[in-house]
Amino acid sequence: MIADIIIRIIGMAIFSVMGVYVGNGLSVYSPDQQLFYTIAFTLIGAFFGLVLTPYLTTRPIRALRALLGRLAAETLFSGLVGLVIGLLTAALLAFPLSLLPSPLGKVLPLIGVLLFGYFGVAVFSTRQADIANILGGFTSRREEGTSTGGAPSNRTILLDTSVIIDGRVADIAKTGFLPGTLLIPRFVLNELQYIADSPDSLRRQRGRRGMEVLAELQKASAVVVRFSDVDVEGVREVDDKLVILARQMKCPILTNDFNLNRIAELQGVLILNINELANAVKSVLLPGELMSVNVIQEGKEVNQGVGYMEDGTMVVVENGNKYLNKEITVTVTKVLQTAAGRMIFARPEGKE
Fold first, then answer.
1. DSSP label at residue 63
2. d(CA 14, CA 20)
3. What is the DSSP string of 1-52?
4. Tens digits of per-residue pLDDT, 295-341?
5. Residue 41 contacts residue 20 (beta carbons within 8 Å)
6. Coil, strand or helix: which one is 303?
7. What distance in Å separates the CA atoms of residue 304 and residue 320, rounded to the nearest whole number?
8. Which of 213, 224, 220, 215 is nearest to 169 (CA)?
9. 230 close to 186: Cβ distance less than 8 angstroms
10. What is the pTM of this model?
């Protein structure tokens, strides 16, 4: 706001001076009206300078900054390399083209600069993924610690609000299973702050726990956390912004939101779902194996008992209502994998 005011004042002064010169120039045709022309065009110049200067200076600069902020780093780098190579090619061709007869010798070098510069940016931007893979391959040969699958260890991972509130991301990051940089956009922080300031006590508690998780992540030495002011113009929903930003930056989203998971997958965005990770690392049991379980409540069906393993997996025990609040040994009869997680069916040992 202050910059706009200063720019308007400077523009008003410059256009006023231009108005003075224009008024004096026009007064030649009517010398007796010189003062009138001078004052009139000075005021007109001051008005146009006050109104138009931001649209000629600060507004285009802000629009350019917003555009560059939405572009991925790979796109900017590839475009810059393409521009340099295009201009070098145009410079090599400028001398032979300048030897052509006039007016071709004067026009074609300029056209060559424009065309080769444009085609260089266009070609290298469309092949930015290949360029990143080539550079990543060179880096992986020289640096240690890069995975054998070719995935760079310095990749960026976008964090969703839900996964920050969940809290498990801090424990996972400490183990080193999240290589790279955890990026938290400003709009995710704003949503987290909105939840932390909610009048509802439960939502407020969840938001504050998310703030504590971020503080814990910043202290962890096994992970790099970075906050960014990058935003997506014209989009209001946080989930939509995350998906668009992930597509632009070509990076995955870490979340446990089921709806965001589906929407992102439909648009070709890689999702790292903590719930799926939790289900994947649960202990594997096969029918016929023995295990110990504490029956804590009755099941939905007749004579059923329900217990839970240490990782939270539900165990439904046939005829288990007889063993409420007791730890018994059961035989696994069936393992059922559902969207909500794994469920185990069993019967007391020795019971057929």
1. H
2. 10
3. -HHHHHHHHHHHHHHHHHHHHHHHHHGGG-GGGHHHHHHHHHHHHHHHHHHH
4. 998 888 888 999 988 777 889 999 888 888 888 999 999 888 765 56
5. yes
6. coil
7. 5
8. 213
9. yes
10. 0.49
List, in sequence order, every residue forming a beta bridge with 118; answer none if it has no partner.
Answer: none
pLDDT of the residue at 145: 45
pLDDT of residue 179: 78
The structure tokens 């029956």 sit at 295
- The CA–CA distances, whole Å, from 318 to 19, 35, 204, 237, 250 equal 94, 105, 41, 47, 49
> What does the alpha-carbon distance between residue 53 and residue 9 come to, in Å, rounded to a whole number?
9
What does the block give as tokens for 229?
């002011």
Burial of 254 (0-12, 13-18, 19+ CB in 10 A): buried
* E-strand stretches of the chain: 156-159, 181-185, 224-228, 253-255, 271-273, 290-298, 305-308, 314-317, 326-338, 341-348
Buried/exposed code over 55-82 (b: 16+ C-beta within 10 A; e: otherwise): eebeeeeeeeeeeeebebebbebbbebb
Which class is domain 290-348? mainly beta
Contacts of 287 (CB under 8 A, 6+ apart): 332, 333, 334, 335
Please answer whether residues 327 and 352 qualify as being in contact, where contact means their C-beta atoms are separated by less than 8 angstroms: no
Name beta bridge partners: 317.
Answer: 305, 346
What is the spatial distance between Cα 350 and Cα 189, in angstroms, rounded to a whole number?
55
Look up the CATH number of domain 154-279: 3.40.50.1010
Query: Could you read off the pLDDT of 248-274 as tens digits, one per residue?
Result: 888 899 988 888 888 888 888 899 988
CB-CB contact of 12 with 49 (8 Å): yes
pLDDT, the chain, mean: 82
Give me the helices (H) in 143-237, please: 161-166, 168-174, 186-196, 201-219
**What is the layout of strands, in order, in the sheet containing 156-159?**
224-228, 181-185, 156-159, 253-255, 271-273
Tell me if residue 137 falls in helix, strand or coil.
helix
> What is the CB neighbour count within 10 angstroms for residue 226?
10
Q: What residue segments make up the domains of the chain, in order of their start?
A: 2-56, 154-279, 290-348
Q: For residue 275, which amino acid is it?
A: N
